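Record format v2
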Amino acid sequence: MTVDTAATSTGDPAAREPELVQLLTPEGQRVPHEYYDTLIEDITAEDIRGLYRDLVLSRRIDSEAVALQRQGELGLWASMLGQEAAQVGSGRALRPQDHAFPTYREHAVAWCRGVEATQLLGLFRGVDQGSWDPRENNFHLYTIVIGAQTLHATGYAMGVQRDGAIGTGDPERDTAVIAYFGDGATSQGDVNEAFIWASVNNAPVVFFCQNNQWAISEPLERQTRVPLYRRAHGFGFPGLRVDGNDVLACLAVSREALQRARDGEGPSLIEAFTYRMGAHTTTDDPTRYRLAADLEHWRLKDPIERVKAYLVRGDLVDQQFFDDLDAESEELAGNLRTACRALPDPEPTSIFEHVYVEPPPTLLAQRDEMAQYLDSFAEQEGPR
Amino acid sequence: MTVDTAATSTGDPAAREPELVQLLTPEGQRVPHEYYDTLIEDITAEDIRGLYRDLVLSRRIDSEAVALQRQGELGLWASMLGQEAAQVGSGRALRPQDHAFPTYREHAVAWCRGVEATQLLGLFRGVDQGSWDPRENNFHLYTIVIGAQTLHATGYAMGVQRDGAIGTGDPERDTAVIAYFGDGATSQGDVNEAFIWASVNNAPVVFFCQNNQWAISEPLERQTRVPLYRRAHGFGFPGLRVDGNDVLACLAVSREALQRARDGEGPSLIEAFTYRMGAHTTTDDPTRYRLAADLEHWRLKDPIERVKAYLVRGDLVDQQFFDDLDAESEELAGNLRTACRALPDPEPTSIFEHVYVEPPPTLLAQRDEMAQYLDSFAEQEGPR
Amino acid sequence: MTDTTPASAEKPASARLTVVKAINAGLRRSMENDDKVLVMGEDVGKLGGVFRVTDGLQKDFGEDRVIDTPLAESGIIGTAVGLALRGYRPVCEIQFDGFVFPGYDQIVTQVAKMHFRSGGRLRLPIVIRIPYGGGIGAVEHHSESPEAYFAHTPGLKVVSCSNPVDAYWMIQQSITTDDPVVFFEPKRRYYEKAEFDLDAEPELPLHSSRVVNQGTDATVATYGPMVKTCMEAAAAAAEDGRSLDVIDLRTLSPLDLEPVYQSVRRTGRLVVVHEAQRTLGIGTEVAARVTEECFYSLESPVIRVTGYDTPYPPARVEDDYLPDLDRVLDGVDRALSY
Amino acid sequence: MTDTTPASAEKPASARLTVVKAINAGLRRSMENDDKVLVMGEDVGKLGGVFRVTDGLQKDFGEDRVIDTPLAESGIIGTAVGLALRGYRPVCEIQFDGFVFPGYDQIVTQVAKMHFRSGGRLRLPIVIRIPYGGGIGAVEHHSESPEAYFAHTPGLKVVSCSNPVDAYWMIQQSITTDDPVVFFEPKRRYYEKAEFDLDAEPELPLHSSRVVNQGTDATVATYGPMVKTCMEAAAAAAEDGRSLDVIDLRTLSPLDLEPVYQSVRRTGRLVVVHEAQRTLGIGTEVAARVTEECFYSLESPVIRVTGYDTPYPPARVEDDYLPDLDRVLDGVDRALSY
Ligand SMILES: Cc1ncc(C[n+]2csc(CCOP(=O)(O)OP(=O)(O)O)c2C)c(N)n1
Ligand SMILES: Cc1ncc(C[n+]2csc(CCOP(=O)(O)OP(=O)(O)O)c2C)c(N)n1
Ligand SMILES: [Mg+2]
Ligand SMILES: [Mg+2]
């Protein structure tokens, strides 16, 4: 027999897409919104140009990294193509004291947090497993084990609570934490436990789910039969869906949720409805499992194009702006290329460093064993 | 600072108890219900006497087991005192072909499934880890690792689906699975994954949560800030709260949910709102963490008293019935006592049995090693 | 069989297959032979798995038998338990070694113990396939060797194939085993090829090791991806006039050490080689047992040539972490220098 | 300190404490000394833990520092990671040995690796307390000895105390360690007592083993609950005119085997004793290393006296599963009969 897995009461998820918060249409038209407009009323044309710049430059970093992988400079890359607005919108809603816990795909959030693009490459080149200092940018290391970071974020937020860094009204003190994860991740026990911990402890954490419709080859229907933002309601905190390709809407809803957190009002879930326009990673071949037409459909919703259209239509930019940005973009990419190639390979014995803060003698003996072994070649002509 | 963990928007869970399905008040008054009455309209006075008998006898088994533990005959016992209605109501809603996956506390469900009371004792006496055959009673082994069985139930239900044993309309074929778990268990990743698997696969499984208000010493607020039945909505299937001390209501809602499952309409969550009237287990001392007044409050809602009141008030029983039941009850307890004491200790080398279906030579060698070692004492006078 | 499985009928009995294709063929055979066999995991369906091990199976056997699961390993194993209790024989894929741990509780507390707990009444014929090991330049969590975590767990059987022929037979043997089997696939040998007869009988039972090179000077015991490395080492040693007995352990729990004991009684020296970290790696158990059994024959302590006791390092330095031909030979030298 | 901790001020410096009370006192001291120290787990607050190890701490240090968590071990460990990243020093309680596995992924893939992954930038000073071992007549999952699963994991430190004095100091030392420490508490020795000075200095650093009985005929290495058993065995052996060196390993990762090597060089025989199953148990690593280091001194292979390779059995037969005085002596006999 064929198992009928369709939810009789709810039908196909795509067929019943709920309202999503949108402030900028794919055509670049500003959609007024009674509430969310107030959250971005301070945003000037200059700011929007800034957001546009973020989108363009972070995409450029991403595409350069894809190219570097093709050239053999990186072992792998997880492209965020198509998800720039979700990442820049939420990333720019963060205050310096806020803290972000990413997956492996939050390159534009990293950009917003001031992490050097080159630093992102180490993990994918295979020279390290995270080369930036999370204490500097309040941007945690990339986490590959799906969902694990959502508990870290929640625990971190519990620490923030204990430090009295919420609800004081001091905008430079009150601190929110944001946890990034994908649609696939929502199926992991850890993510659900994070929801529970956060709600029971009323922790200042925002769960930011980039629903890019795919977990590698699995479409959203394999993870849920209702829109993901609704999960939050079952755990007792607010959840909403935002147009993840609309940087203004993402900014507005993130600001709201982060401020709730900073004010001590607890967690929220944001489902940024977006699309993974590229492959899952550079080793993936999406033509095996999805239709080209789908991609075309989403290309029309491109997160960058709509901001460009808005800027142009509103006469908020001139050609010079675009030309400058192009130049900046190419320079960034060029620097990235150069810096990537210059990333040094680690020393063999470096693998014994930082296994422990206080390394035991037994491990140091293994290090010496390796060093001696390697020396034995140096003494000879070379390896046999 | 003191962390404020209260959910601002939702307040204290107890203060906002939602409507629960109730068909029989604590005073034994029948509450009419437009829909749920139809689900138990076949229930005769004889049936209610039968339910009463189930409640009384299963409680007697439970109290006898507590006594046996006190006498040193059992290492431990997890009393279900106060939860009889939830268990008998759901247990009696099962059809022979249905399948139940319990925790360690479902003694009355076991009773309904025809598991011999003595068979429940082996685990707690320490002579085995489950002595009944789940294939005989469709009552799975007790599971102590919190939540693990909910995934087993869901997988089993997926098997039922694959066997084409749902939605055929044949009342002897269509099969539902029921997974029991506690309020504390809802925090485990596994339980949430079971919700997701069940909903995505539309599996014929009923999640039956006995919310007895406590997970050992932790009150419900440590697991959730909203009523537990609402969790289901976030995953996209129905959830409801029933008076867990009302056997008729538990029967009705379980019948509904099980039939949905058998009909191929997918999973449901039932939150049976009840109370653990005893200690968590015989090693627990609840006076350390809860008020006697609480217990008093719940004593008034006793699941057995209300059925008795209903039977007496409706003149559906005579004294003989109660006398007979008393006698049956004492006989059952007496037999249980005798049978418990007669449970043989396992042979030492039995620990090597059933580790594998096909035991490897290395393990058999260890068995021989033990046997030889034990023999060496037999040859001497006794152990040195 | 039926028209749902057209591919196999046309397939020639003898074929030149990679490890990937051999496991695929073995899965296909198993599914044809027993319609209770299911394949489940992340991306195993339409995509055919990230390594294409399950390629084409969903197309031919349908979505009910080849299940793209939600993204959660505990859910994969836990529902497989339920399916097995219902009479199915699930073959679960864990996408990469480092991702088995969210499913570890279900494996250790449920899968490993159910038969025992039930006094033999319940059986869980579940296979858990895990592509493992390094040397492929991957990012963290994608190159680990967690086999000892499973071999330390009573109730589980643990095997690792090292070549296409074994891959083909061992997956089928694992599926017909009534005990749960953790099946480790040497991912960096996925594209090694061999020509063999798909219709022949398997040469050996599942839980047996095999002498893959005959020698007299020292014994090398290994498994999975390191078998090839050790064979290369044996070839290099032969050029230097040293002959090595190389044993492919194949089964890690139970271990089948009789051939190792026999060899060590002749050679007096044993080198155990694996990628996993040294402390409490499989080599440790081999060393302890061989020392127990062959105490008077050993002329040197058992030498463990393994990964180091560090997390798996970044790809650009993995070659220094992993045992290679030279480190194996160095181990042999050390054994011989006693 | 402040008025939140009145109890300690009144306490006499010297006290006769059980292991439970000693750990409690150690936790209390640590919390007084560093207000970043948190205690978290199931039932650790109002109840004081099912064994009362955290008794009174919530009352004195408040609900922010002694946290009754939701019922989920992955959540406990995962949020502890976050708290540690924020500068706290969480001490997590796992209620029983068999329940650590739902938290195993966070421990193995996150806790153990964060310092390494971050190139040393991040530290996770987390202590994971696990009451472990059998002999208390408990139901399944409540009597296991999972220490080897952790000792096989680089990045973790693993210790086990065996008596009140060590319990008191080792918990404090674990809490001040900047590496994650898995702290195994010998639950069947929880009520053993000792009188000692709470204000003295610890005799030994955390990661060191200790010779607890001097002897010349054979060496016995053990840890945790088996230390008492081995001491009894040593006493019984003494009556038979045999003297045993008994070493309490105390630290399981890293192992501190120097005292074992020294002893074995004198005695030529080693028996390793633990409750955990034999295959890939801690004894296996001890055996392998001692054989490597003391090859020419050993007159017998290292004898492993351990639990068997079965799931932990029902309570009424656990005495046959667990090593006892007689099995230890039998192991010594076997070592001496070579
Ligand atoms: C625990 C675990 N299991 C499996 C994987 C392999 N894996 C990597 S990414 C991925 C899909 C993730 O999907 P989603 O959460 O939607 O995030 P996206 O990649 O779409 O951004 C999988 C299965 C993993 N990294 N971790
Ligand atoms: C994974 C796991 N963690 C911890 C425990 C210890 N434990 C046993 S029962 C229990 C509380 C369970 O509470 P709940 O789910 O509400 O069920 P109840 O006992 O109230 O029926 C705990 C923490 C366990 N059995 N399994
Ligand atoms: Mg996705
Ligand atoms: Mg409960």
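Strands of chain B lie at 99-101, 177-182, 205-211, 214-215, 218-219, 239-243, 268-273.
The pocket of magnesium ion (ligand 4) is lined by residues B 182-184, 212, 214-215 (CB under 6 Å).
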